[in-house]
Design brief:
This protein has 358 residues and is α+β, with helices and mostly antiparallel strands. The chain has a domain of 97 residues: Orthogonal Bundle (T-fold). The chain is 32% helix and 27% strand. The protein is built from ten helices and 19 strands. The protein is globular and about 60 Å long. It binds adenosine monophosphate and magnesium ion. Adenosine monophosphate binds next to helix 9. Magnesium ion binds next to helix 9.
């Protein structure tokens, strides 16, 4: 981590520590959509789920029913996918690590299967077996600590997506080794965004704005036909925006070290891990936003591309040009994929580069 990054974190950290307070701020100030766009929403729910604040806002004839159904769907997914709920399917898999196969629902199975495909595609930058590393650094309990080299060496033996086994014939999952554990924290909210979007579309509605802890999904257009606008948080100053995106039926999902971190002896340790080192990712990026119609893909890739860093992220984009990418570099520059020209308006005064591949 550079001196500049350290300074930026200190500036935005305020109290140095993290967690609940920062998550609340992340919700209030992060990629929230332009509320003026929906000046008189018919219904809105705000709730706490998946360890973060969420809101669902719908305009339309069945708005009340739509927001309630959306919230219930998030709660259902939390019960299925949470690592901390002992009754969830993920907990059942984790408890049986190193011993038995666990039969899960087709839904959980297919989410895990997708996560594994992206682990392969990103050469391990994305890895849902990262849970023991999160525990080791105290991110799971909130009791943050910097582990020593021996602990790092030992935790590395307990992670690795290639040890996550799938049996397609019976929707069975197994973590091969004892002490392994699964954490869907980098994909569950994206999946929830997809599901809530699908559910709202079953109702009579015009416009919807879903904010799952800073992961924003918009559906439909403003009453006057204009696109809804989503602002992407400036990681250097979370009360400001990197820029604003005009969107329709899109997910805008952001990963950044600024969302959760702790500081010890003047060093900042973020919650996005490099599975190769079992240490916080040493990214040259402060945040990565992925804009796509598929929430699972956006969520996975925002995390993975953050870990990969600028050069590899741009290389990845070169082979997946349908994605929209907005990345904040540690030196303050904003990198925007060329396909967002005319869609993403960068805040005045920011230095911006539009990239068009490697
Ligand atoms: P996100 O905010 O979507 O980037 O997800 C970050 C969360 O995903 C962390 O809080 C961890 O629970 C988990 N995580 C951290 N590093 C990784 C990684 N390299 N691959 C997959 N999940 C990760
Ligand atoms: Mg993610």
């Amino acid at each position: 981590m550079t001196d500049r990054t350290r300074f930026l974190f200190r500036k935005s950290a305020g109290r140095g520590g993290v967690c609940f307070v920062c998550l609340v701020l992340a919700f209030s100030f992060s990629a929230c959509a332009d509320n003026a766009s929906i000046s008189s929403p018919s219904a809105k729910v705000e709730f706490f789920a998946m360890n973060t604040l969420m809101s669902i806002e719908v305009r339309g004839a069945e708005a009340e029913a739509a927001v309630a159904a959306g919230r219930d769907e998030v709660y259902r997914l939390e019960r299925l996918l949470s690592r901390t709920d002992p009754k969830s399917e993920v907990s059942a898999i984790n408890t049986a690590a190193g011993s038995e196969w666990t039969e899960v629902s087709e839904e959980t199975f297919s989410l895990i299967q997708t996560a594994l495909l992206y682990s392969e595609e990103t050469e391990g930058a994305f890895d849902i077996t990262i849970a023991p590393v999160m525990d080791l650094w105290g991110f799971s309990s909130g009791e943050h600590r910097v582990p020593d080299d021996a602990e790092i060496g030992s935790v590395l033996e307990r992670i690795g997506y290639e040890h996550l086994l799938l049996d397609e014939t019976g929707f069975r999952v197994k973590l091969e080794n004892p002490g392994m554990s699964m954490d869907l924290g980098a994909v569950a909210k994206g999946y929830a965004g997809d599901r809530v979007k699908e559910i709202i579309k079953q109702f009579d509605f015009e416009t919807a704005l879903i904010n799952l802890g800073g992961n924003v999904t918009v559906i439909g257009r403003k009453p006057n036909g204009d696109l809804l606008r989503v602002a992407i948080t400036d990681p250097e100053n979370r009360q400001q925006y990197l820029g604003v995106l005009g969107s329709e039926d899109t997910h805008v999902i952001t990963s950044g070290g600024y969302e959760r971190f702790f500081e010890q002896d003047g060093k900042v340790y973020i919650h996005i891990m490099d599975p190769e080192t079992a240490r916080p990712a040493q990214s040259d990026l402060l945040s990565v936003s992925v804009i796509d119609s598929n929430g699972v893909r956006s969520d996975i890739l925002s995390t993975a591309l953050f870990v990969m860093g600028r050069e590899e992220a741009i290389r990845y984009w070169s082979g997946h040009r349908d994605l929209g990418l907005v990345m904040a570099k540690v030196d303050g520059e904003v990198l925007v994929s060329k396909n967002l020209l005319g869609t993403f308006r960068v805040t005045e005064g920011k230095s911006v580069t539009y990239f068009d591949g490697e």
